[in-house]
Amino acid sequence: MALLIRNGEIVTVGSRAQADVYVENETITSIGRNLEAPPDTEVIDATGKLVFPGFIDPHVHIYLPFMATFAKDTHETGSIAALIGGTTTYIEMCCPNRNDDALEGYQLWKSKAEGQSACDYAFHMSVTKFVKETESQLRQIVADGTPSFKIFLAYKNFFGVDDGEMYQTLELAKRLGVIVTAHCENAELVARLQEKLLAEGKAGPEWHEPSRPESVEAEGTGRFATFLENTGATGYVVHLSCEKALRAALEAKARGVNIHVESVLPHFLLDKSYAERPGVEGMKHVMSPPLRAKHNQDALWNALAAGSIDTVGTDHCPFDTEQKLMGKDSFVNIPNGIPGIEDRVNLLYTHGVKGGRISLDRFVDAASTRAAKLFGLYPRKGTIAVGSDGDLVVFDPNHRGFVSAKSHHMNNDYSGFEGMPIEGRPSVVTVRGKVQVREGKFVGERGRGKILKREPSHF
Ligand code: URP
Ligand code: ZN
Ligand code: ZN
After folding, report:
1. Using CA atoms, how far apart are residues 168 and 111, in angstroms rounded to an integer?
2. Which partner from 164, 169, 271, 407 sits 20 to 30 angstroms from 457, CA to CA?
3. pLDDT band at residue 405, thresholds of 50, 70 and 90?
4. Which residues lie closer than 8 Å to 116 by C-beta, 6 or more apart?
């Protein structure tokens, strides 16, 4: 069935206009005023609403064996939560660990999503070691439509790569035109500081941040940038959390390094005092890089407004209360991660746009368009144009509500953002022309999501 969205204000990067959007066979075929609705067209009245391109979350974990447990969502639960929150595409980190075979890992991650996700999806392929078969395996994965890699400088002996492996990955990425995303913390320093703090009897969640201080992240970011500089590869720092690391990335950019920056929802809205809350409340707010001192948030918002932070993701990584309690005797055993896939768009709109921190244009760019451009999805995704997929978010700026685990759809028993007010939410969300969400409810087709094949573009 065709779809016509009438009378909304269409917002894309660089343009705002009152118009109708018509979608046929999954694709936008016309945009204009007073478009006709042929028979058998589903018509949605968007009067008084904003119409955004479907939002893209460039950093999520759905299937994740990590820290002796598994993240809680499936692609079914995670994608429904994503859609209710306005995210129509996510890019999942495919994370086999150092002992796993990369190609088998890639097939496993794909099998978890296939036929399960209600929204479209893609992967960043983690390179967690570099051995003799790695190059040919990565070439196969890129040829399969996954031209973005992920490396971890943290998580020693599990996901983490050493400098030699980072060099080999970046050198190959440059030849293949692949962008490399990176978790930038110095693994050795984290291990030493954890040991030292535990030896001093400092075992609560409040010691997680001191075990991975800002300088440890700034060092990782600076080192990644130096390796980019010397290989010519294009890089993307994930979940950058603090001003010191930001400075390292921006200094590199200023000297011509091809480096892009993502920050994630928790780092804009939560600070380290959340992880200092007693008991399990603190544990719920343990992630890496950790929540930081509050002053960092101003630096992140300002850089986001200026466009020097490119994207806002979530690093959605749901572990429930029982799993968080695995770390009750030592912060090093608290599974790292905070869920947020459902909350990103609403909270970014509320605190960013309504809060006067970022323009509406930058909001669309950071939450959709820039990720589409960096990761080979544009203009299929990330904009509203003839020929683009019919992924649309009819957004009601007058909705008022608040975030709560009682009403969210993520498979998790708490929210890191519990009680935060929201001003605006998606009222209709479509994926390739099919209505998947109405007024906070999933009304669509489970398993509709498709894997998005992409081409390398960072030569
Ligand atoms: O704490 C986090 N960020 N958990 C997920 C794994 C990662 O580092 O992205
Ligand atoms: Zn990470
Ligand atoms: Zn992550």
Report:
1. 28
2. 164
3. very high
4. 74, 75, 76, 79, 446, 447, 449
